[in-house]
Amino acid sequence: MRSIGRRDFLGMTGAAAMAASLPARALAAPAAADGLTSLAGKAVPISVEERKARIAKAQRLMRAQGLSALLIEPGSSLIYFTGVHWSRSERLTAAVLPVEGDILIVTPFFEEPSVRETLAVPGDFRTWNEHEDPVRLVADWLKAHKLAGGKIGMEETVRYFAVDGLKRALPDAEIVSGASVVRGCRMHKSPAEIALMQIAADITIAAYRYTAPRIQRGMTPKDIGAIMNDATRALGGDPEFALVLLGEASAYPHGSGKPQAVRDGEVVLMDCGCTVQGYQSDISRSFVFGEPSKKQRDVWQIMRKGQDIAFEAAKVGASAGSVDDAVRAYYTKLGYGPDYKLPGLSHRTGHGIGLDGHEPVNLVRGETTPLAPGMCFSNEPGIYIPGDFGIRLEDCFYMTAQGPRWFSNPPPSIDNPFG
Asked: What topology is assigned to 48-186 in CATH?
């Protein structure tokens, strides 16, 4: 359940207390305890040919929707289509995908050499100096290529100043959302993308197995998060987040700012992920430091069953929302909820995942998008009991023509949370 604001709120809130509670066989440390070996050695970067095919697909979708061009700012969509890794600032850098032909990159004059370093597809450059208007530069290029009179799409995260500026520069153009074009490409992962996500998931599970036996009574979330992130780096992943919630804090999906430490008999909820070549993992585990109570065991088992129900409901052609509906129907029968009421499931069952930890579409009530091969989702129908504890298990899956397949296998029991 990675959330954009979570790391700012809690940093590496961590915490697990479990070494004292689980059987030695479940917590066996790697043979080379401090000599972890990278699992990312076989990671294959996305090829130039695949990026070109992505642009070609976007152009087909643009033609079908009557768009003449699509504007994209730095971020995951720019990486997806062009390979360009760049940060947003008050100085506009953007790509324009025309309905035909090579892309345009607009960037400040002094940034061009740096922006070119990661460009992975053929493209035209237009640069601007500090006293000039970069949006006017985009408009002039569109006019020169006879693209200024039709519909111009905006990638859904483009900032308002760029949208407003283009409206003023091209009063006769129709500025529209380009989300359906971008989503139509990015929602369906290729075998190369799924392979990178699999490596990221493998790294996260291996890092969990390394971290668990090193958790000790009195550790803070920061202590545990540091172990997890160090292991992730050693295994070849780039740590993306390490959320650790202890005791009552586990009852709140993104935790609490109150001081926390590992204590006997309390739930430890870890939500961690990494990236490999930009593609993400997102895996959560909940367990108890010491001996679990009957209530903790019962809630854990119900939540684990919720994962299975979601997985079984994820059939090709079924609506994404129906997966969430299936889990809530099960929980309601057992007295959790109804709907988002607590104790129960206070958030969606899952989110899309890929280059972003959260990306369209979601497994949430009312989402009508049909599930199709290549789509990737988290499966995390947590149960939260305010003032007491929460249980969240999260494993991601991808859709195939035959149905869903796990990136990481859900755990067998509260006593063996890493399989």
From this structure: Creatine Amidinohydrolase; Chain A, domain 1 (3.40.350)
